[in-house]
Specification:
binds 5'-O-[(R)-(carboxyoxy)(hydroxy)phosphoryl]adenosine, five-stranded mixed β-sheet, Nucleotidyltransferase, domain 5, binds zinc ion, 20% strand
Length: 348
């Protein structure tokens, strides 16, 4: 009989407007590890930032500073673990808002120092990608990752754990940012992604004409700022904007972004032949994107496996950071001061 070997990892995430602390137990005696989420605490600041229409960095940092210890206490209590039972601390070191990141990394470094535990700094985007391992096992490489979040829109080829190649990225606005700005133009509130997708359910396609930026471009780069400008002009051209016009614009906008994302993803499969395609990041919670990408994969590359995290692991959370910590644990250090916070790191 194989002896069971477990590892408990504490994850901390404060790159934007969620203070998140999680503890995962990893069963490592398997061919492919099994992750058990013992606690997944997320304290969202959405309501605080909503009145400003976006995240205010200094306010975010103040909230993280206030909430990080209560979140840690709740995560430890829910997991029913003591500090001695933690084997590794994983913390988001970037990219993100520097004032917000510093709260998480400082807390993690202090814990690592006081508890005498190894610590590892995690790339937030890698964290979003690793979120796919929380509920799936034996994911086959190479993996094509479509990363769609508030700050990033990227196609990443993952050839092994910790090995990422950036194939393309947005040249201006990120997709989530485009949803948030469009929502503001349509007066639908913040965060824009859930608001736009909710309103779009009542809309019909084809009422308005919107561009599909860079859809025919040979590169794997994206651009969404022109789409936002087109919406602004559309809104200005309407004498009075009714709820049904809002729904039609939201529907068309959402479809324009989905068309571009799908087209580029399928094009990348024709060049890189991935065994798996995964969706990652906050915008991966978009139901239409989840569904339509699945249909396109089935139609064009039906042998390629398609995975996405469940909704609670799409948005920022610390379980994904802890899982990333497991796969990249060989980079951990016993000297907490070696972990460098970096607001602008890129995945590859
Ligand atoms: O990954 P995330 O939680 O934070 C960053 O790393 O940026 O992503 C947040 C973004 C926001 O822009 C939000 O509007 C968007 O994800 N989002 C959505 C949906 N839910 C959240 N966008 C489109 N459809 C959704 N259902
Ligand atoms: Zn994120």
């Amino acid at each position: 009989m194989t002896r069971s070997t477990n590892m408990n990892i504490l994850g901390i995430e404060t790159s934007c407007d969620e203070t998140a602390v999680a503890i995962i137990k990893v069963q490592t005696n398997q061919k492919s590890p099994i992750f058990h989420v013992l606690s997944n605490v997320v304290s969202s600041q959405v309501k605080l930032h909503a009145k400003y229409g976006g995240v205010v960095p200094n306010l975010a940092a103040r909230e993280h500073a206030k909430n990080i210890i209560p979140c840690l206490e709740e995560a430890m209590e829910t997991a029913k673990l003591s500090s001695q039972q933690i084997d590794l601390i994983a913390v988001t070191r970037g990219p993100g808002l520097i004032s917000a990141l510093l709260i998480g990394t400082s807390a993690a470094k202090s814990l690592a120092y006081a508890w005498q535990k190894p610590i590892i700094g995690i790339d937030h985007i890698a964290g979003h990608i690793y979120a796919n391992w929380i509920e799936n096992r034996n994911i086959e490489f190479p993996i094509l990752c479509l990363v769609v979040s508030g700050g990033h829109t990227e196609l990443v080829l993952m050839t092994d754990y910790g090995k990422f190649e950036l194939l393309g990225k947005t040249r201006d606005d990120a997709i989530g940012e485009a949803f948030d700005k469009t929502s503001r133009l349509l007066e639908l509130g913040y965060p824009g992604g859930p608001a736009i997708s909710r309103v779009a359910e009542n809309g019909t396609l084809g009422k308005f004409n919107l561009p599909r930026p860079m859809i025919h471009d040979k590169s794997f780069d994206f651009s969404f700022s022109g789409l936002k400008t087109a919406i602004r002009e559309l809104v200005i051209s309407q004498k009075k904007i009714t709820d049904s016009t809002r729904a039609e614009i939201a529907k068309e906008f959402q479809q324009a972004t989905i068309d571009v994302l799908i087209s580029k993803t399928i094009k990348a499969t024709e060049k890189y032949y991935p065994k798996t395609i995964i969706l990652a990041g906050g915008v991966a919670a978009n139901k239409e994107l989840r569904k339509q990408l699945g249909i396109a994969i089935e139609k064009n590359v039906s042998k390629t496996k398609y995975l996405m995290p469940s909704l609670k692991f799409c948005a920022d959370n610390a379980s994904m950071v802890a899982v990333a910590g497991y796969f990249e644990r060989y980079k951990a250090t016993n000297s907490p001061w070696d972990v460098q916070t970096d607001a602008n790191i890129t995945i590859a």
